Amino acid sequence: MDIEQKQAELIEHFVKQAAGAPNASALASILVEATSHPSLFAFSEILALPNLLQLEATENSVYLDMLRLFAHGTWSDYKSNADRLPRLIPDQILKLKQLTVLTLAETYKVLPYDQLMQELDVTNVRELEDFLINECMYAGIVRGKLDQLRRCFEVQFAAGRDLRPGQLGSMIQTLSNWLSTSENLLVSIQEKIKWADAMSEIDKKHRKDVEEKVEEVKKSLFKADIDFRGHEEICSESGGVMDYEEDRSRPKRRRHPIS
């Protein structure tokens, strides 16, 4: 099963669970389970459920804030607001640090070790590299390579996170710009194809004209050669008759007897 399909099934599972929660306490428990699951990294569908509003202005409202943190926040955000959020269990801490790497990978393609260690609260390079390899790359949420010489992680692929509030409009604008650029590029490519086709036809016509002229020249040379050979033979035969007639008309010299 691929990552996208597994994500979709997990999202559907937790959406149904959260939508059918009988009370705020049960809903809070489901949110903890969802944010702890090792294979779930998208929470917008759960966050959009209408019954989550029942958590507002109650003692369980912190679990709604916790869900928002996992949808859009980072480990640094949690540390800054830990006194107003539920205490995270180890699986949630791991998940939030994985999501932090995804957030950084959205912005930077080269992540310096120093920045990662600060954002993830990691104290040494070995611990950082183990985390990136075992908890990010093997988990399939990010792909890249470690450059130990430059002390950085080069991002090649990273799974997307939930859109933050207000981010949808910016993404739509970005996609619209991309679509417009693609359409202009397509028109330019089509024009170049037409130009190439036209040049190809001109080249074919020119080549055909040259070949026809070459054939005409060949035929002319062949005909001229035949005419020349015929004329040469005629001249040769005429010359032989004339020589014979001249020999007959020339007076013969009389030989004197030897005394």
Automatic annotation (TrEMBL):
List UniProt keywords, sorted A-Z: Cytoplasm, Nucleus, Signalosome
Which InterPro entries does the record cross-reference, listed alphabetically?
COPS7/eIF3m, CSN7_helixI, PCI_dom
What GO biological process terms does the UniProt entry carry, in alphabetical order?
A: COP9 signalosome assembly
UniProt lists compositionally biased (Basic residues) regions at 250-259
Record's protein name: PCI domain-containing protein
What PROSITE patterns does the database record attribute to this sequence?
A: PCI
* Stretches assigned to the PCI domain: 1-160
| Annotated region (Disordered), positions in chain | 239-259
Where is this protein localized, as stated in its record?
Answer: Cytoplasm; Nucleus
Task: Identify the GO cellular component terms for this protein.
Answer: COP9 signalosome; cytoplasm
Against Pfam families, the record matches this protein to: CSN7a_helixI, PCI
UniProt KW Nucleus keyword? yes
**Location (main, coarse):** cytoplasm
Query: Is Cytoplasm set as a keyword in this record?
Result: yes
- What does the sequence similarity comment in the record state about its family? Belongs to the CSN7/EIF3M family. CSN7 subfamily.
Domain of life where this protein originates:
Eukaryota
